[in-house]
Amino acid sequence: MTTSAIKKQVDNYLPLLPKGQQTLVLEVIKSLVEEHNTSERIDHAQYNKEIDAAVARMDAGDFVPHERALDELSSL
Predict the structure, then answer these.
(1) SS3 sequence, the chain?
(2) What is the pLDDT of residue 40?
(3) pLDDT in tens, 14-65
(4) CA dist 62 to 33, 59, 65, 66, 69, Å?
């Protein structure tokens, strides 16, 4: 898909969302651009270290349950 076609679809769909979700989409886009501009590839060892840390956080209960995430998104 071309950049022009993508822009046209975004221009068509974005106004259909409530203002809160439009803001959320904008923040996601900004986050993706920032990540793309600052991302550096990590090696296999660093990747595994980050995965292990994430699993440890989840095991410790440091996460948002799916239902709560849906509730928060629906209130935007």
Answers:
(1) CCHHHHHHHHHHHHHHCCHHHHHHHHHHHHHHHHHHHHCCCCCHHHHHHHHHHHHHHHHCCCCCCHHHHHHHHHCC
(2) 75
(3) 999 999 999 999 999 999 988 777 767 788 999 999 999 999 999 999 999 9
(4) 27, 7, 10, 13, 14
Per the listing, tokens 């292990």 go with: 52
Q: How far apart are CA 35 and CA 10, in angstroms?
A: 20
Q: Determine contact, residues 14/22, Cβ cutoff 8 Å.
A: yes
Distance from the Cα of residue 61 to its chain's centroid: 21
